[in-house]
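Work Package 3 (structural annotation) set out to generate three-dimensional models for the target panel prioritized at the project kickoff. During this period the team completed the workflow that converts sequence records into discrete structure tokens, so that structures can be stored uniformly alongside our sequence database. As a representative example, we reproduce one entry of 271 residues exactly as it appears in the project archive.
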Amino acid sequence: MSSRPPFDATASFKYTESPNPAWKLGDGLQATNPQAEQWKKDEQKGWKTWDMDKTPSRDRYKLLTSAIGPRPIAFVSSLSADGVPNLAPFSYFSMVADNPPLISIAFTLPQVKPKDTRDNIKATKEFTVNIISEPWIEAANVCSVDAPPEIDEWILSGLTRVPSDIVKPPRVKESAVSLECELFHFQDICPPGSDLVTNSFILGLIKRVHIRNAVLAEGGNTVDPEKLRPVARFGGQTYARLGDGFELSRPAWKDIADAVEGLTSQVNGKA
């Protein structure tokens, strides 16, 4: 990787037009630019299909983590029942709801070694999720090491502990967004027809949200993605940063109902 260009810390997130600003109802994929033209042309290469029931677990993992992305990363701080700290990143992570405020994390369970974070949350029912940003990604990445449970990843990373308000696990000072969470639901997952637990799924109830003032958008009630500089995951060893963004308004039915009726009549008339 040393032959690759250096990381450009000056690059920033910016808004652009959407890829096809002239798109209208019923247009589907329009080859209005070179990217779209190539996308349409690539249909001629066909599709490759995987039968998940016949695909080995290791191959499923590689395939799905490369195809489903970019994924946000939960950098989870937890404590064991004996008070041993743990810090680890997980990319099977998402926001689930705002009422109640819930996040989800899934843990893949290797048979040779349990996931400390999973065991800690099940035992203590508390944890914090810290959002990773570009300036300290290497410090977060080192915490993915398969260390013995007695090893303190905080020491490996050099990151700074900050006391939480209502849960015992600390949050990460370097993180611009930290969530104090309590366990809301825990579910072990087994493959169909098997009693072997291969994954665990949790829902976390967010009790406190801590956000650096420096990353808040104008008005102070939302986060500015350009200032947050979040990092996401693809497959293998690949991380990703934000590039350009664009806005698309959600259609209101009252605004498109007549056009949809006309389009439907036109399509049905051709059938």
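The chain has a mean pLDDT of 93.
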